[in-house]
Here is the input.
Amino acid sequence: MLTRYGATRDELAELLADQPRYRVDQVWDALWRRRVPLDDATELPATLRTRLGDALPLALSPVVEATSDDELTTKWLWATRTGAEVEAVLMRWASRASVCVSSQAGCAMACTFCATGQAGFERHLDTPEIIEQVLRAQHASPQRVTNVVYMGMGEPLANYDAVRDSIVQIRDRLGISARRITVSTVGVVPGMRRLATEALPVTLAVSLHAPDDVLRRQLVPLTDRYPIAEILDAAAEVAGAQGRRVTFEYAAIRGVNDSPAQAEALGRLLGSWPGVGGAHVNLIPLNPTAGFPGQASPRRHLHEFALRLRAYGVTATVRRTRGAEIDAACGQLRRRTLTPVEHPASSRMEPCANTSS
Ligand code: SF4
Here is the structure.
């Protein structure tokens, strides 16, 4: 079924075959370049807007919308036409905005600290469903969306083709440079190696969360398949091929992965990493969830952790989290509306982090 952001230009032209030729340009321009809702494209006759609205329905229906106290962060839970629920987050600044999108409904990676993982995997999103999250967020933002991060629900590289195609369309139709697009992975090595072959200079963000395989296995079960050494090797390949610095995400959990010794171990590991531009670590205080007993590391710890990393030549930042009061971390809003399914692991927590940009 055709949807508003799934129709190609040719399909749109076919729908508008009885209209003057310039109508196709007008509609395409409104949807993609000006990024306005169809109802706001008042240069089109009202009857035509109604007809197009019926012929090209939206793929996502709102379930929950929550805005932070400062009104700079908005999170949506949307239902797809098959009933699967996905989340997206809009983060606004004075002159720009960033959208964090989901690539799957649920996630099969089962990271033990992740709210999304608690509900298990439902299905991959298709390209129009991913792109519509960006457009719908844009409709709510006075600022132009300049950045897109694939850090919402799901593992983007496990839904490779749809994610790659959505990046291409975001670049070509919305005019957002691939350099302003970040793709997060928990370490799907084949997908990382494939990304290295694409002419798409996105920023890769690798969710590392531990300095050694023994601890990482407890947090990220995928470590059994792809140990850290292999992930770092693939990350260096991406950095070299794309000429982009890779960032490493580290959700800091008090008493679990935030000790001085673990900072030293991470510094040694990443200080010698050969990727372009060296390693950059984003330290993210864990956003606690009901399903996981872990707590966030105190910010003071994180700053000390960052200092130790810098001593090894690793750049490190302590990420400011946003919208905690609206459960802005991935998977949390959906989890509130669901009865979690049985899952083999006893606890889940915060996934790919509530992003800052
Ligand atoms: S942290 Fe990311 S990859 Fe892991 S289960 Fe959660 S959404 Fe999936």
User: Anything to note?
Assistant: Residues 107, 109-111, 114, 116-117, 153-155, 186, 330, 351-352 surround iron/sulfur cluster (CB under 6 Å). The radius of gyration is 21 Å.
